[in-house]
Amino acid sequence: MSVFAAGMIQAELKGKRFLCRTAASFVSARIAIKPKPPIRPTDLGLKRALTGGLIVVGSYVPKTTKQVDELRSQCEQSLRIIEVSVEMISMKSAEDRDHEISRVIELGNAYIQSRKDTLVVTSRQLITGKTPEESLEINYKVSSALVEIVRGIGSRPRYILAKGGITSSDLATKALEARRAKVMGQALAGVPLWQLGPESRHPGVPYIVFPGNVGDNSALAKVVQNWACPSRSSAKELLLNAENGGYAIGAFNVYNLEGIDAVVSAAEAEKSPAILQVHPSALKQGGVPLVSCCIAAAEHASVPITVHYDHGTSKSDLLQALEMVCMVLIQSWWTDHIYL
Question: Which residues are in the Four-carbon acid sugar kinase nucleotide binding domain (predicted)?
Fold first, then answer.
């Protein structure tokens, strides 16, 4: 690409003029931008977030379908997948179309608010019309449905990834009402990363423009994994970071929801990690609801928070505490996997 760009420059110096329709890699070669590693959330200061990311796939090129299959395979446990029925939104009645769009919007809002990265993907069976005009009409209905869906998802995503040239253009300008964006770099080679402008529906949100024919089969999965919500820090990690950084971490005994909220709010205000401690007496009185509140608060905090069992006096106390944690995690898993 650099050789081609150099030849093009020489031709331009001799009076030639070119209109370029190229991938992003050409731009960096043409203006001699040094290669940079793919941008990740931490590079933009996005260390933790309270919402999930939104991945929207509308492209039907074979490569995109293979990339979606690989994404499903690699991220099945962490990703929430909503398949949009192309038949429902393009071939059925207006009522059926509206119902399908509403269903996807409802699920999308719920998943994103629950900090789950969410894939909205059109069904992969290509539906065509009897004539080119009918096929074009189907394409328009699918594209406009995706616009309605993204516009209807009111929850602010941690990031948005649009797969497909037309899809990314329509979502940015029509669904998100973006008129300007700052190009931050690339999420992957050939995959531009924007930051949506202040006039858009989600100002400042990273917007990944993923062309349909770019990358190998695992490229989409790689980007989604790079932008996955960071996992909650363990107590060991918090303490090691504190030791290396030469600072202390406050540990606070909590007995109810108000106490939990007070500790987390103070930690967030000070941008400091903290430890929620549950004493055996508090565990006896609060039980599973108290443990559940502590874990939920830690999961949703914008700063690292861990939960600590404080001053257990016997092996049976410890086993009881572990049993309650297991119950909370099982309930959380069950809630996440309910079919809506």
Answer: 54-220
* pLDDT surpasses 90 at 264: yes
Q: Are strands 191-196 and 181-188 parallel, antiparallel or unpaired?
A: antiparallel
| Interatomic CA distance for residues 180 and 171, integer angstroms | 13
Query: Tell me: the pLDDT tens digits for 185-214?
Result: 899 988 999 999 999 999 999 999 999 888
Domains of the chain plus CATH, in order, are 1-35 (no CATH), 39-226 (3.40.980.20), 235-336 (3.20.20.70)
pLDDT (0 to 100) of residue 74:
92
Structure tokens at 250: 């406050």
Distance CA 58, CA 119 (A): 11
β-pair partners for 117: 79
pLDDT tens, 65-79?
Answer: 999 999 999 988 889
Q: How far apart are CA 81 and CA 55, in angstroms?
A: 9
The DSSP result for 275-331, as a single string, is: EEEE-HHHHHHHHHHHHHHHHHHHHH-SS-EEEEE----SHHHHHHHHHHHHHHHHH
How far apart CA 202 and CA 181 sit, in angstroms, is: 11
Closest residue by Cα to residue 237 from 282, 265, 275 = 275
Q: pTM of this prediction?
A: 0.70
Per-residue pLDDT reduced to its tens digit, 113-126? 888 899 999 998 87
CA 89 to chain centre: 25
DSSP letter, residue 145: H
* DSSP assignment letter at 181: E
Within 10 A of 99 (CB to CB), how many other CB atoms are there? 14
CA distance 58 to 166: 8
Q: What is the DSSP letter of 71?
A: H
- Cα 273 versus chain centre, distance: 23
- Per-residue pLDDT at 158: 93
Residue 24 sits at φ, ψ, to 5 deg, of -65, -30
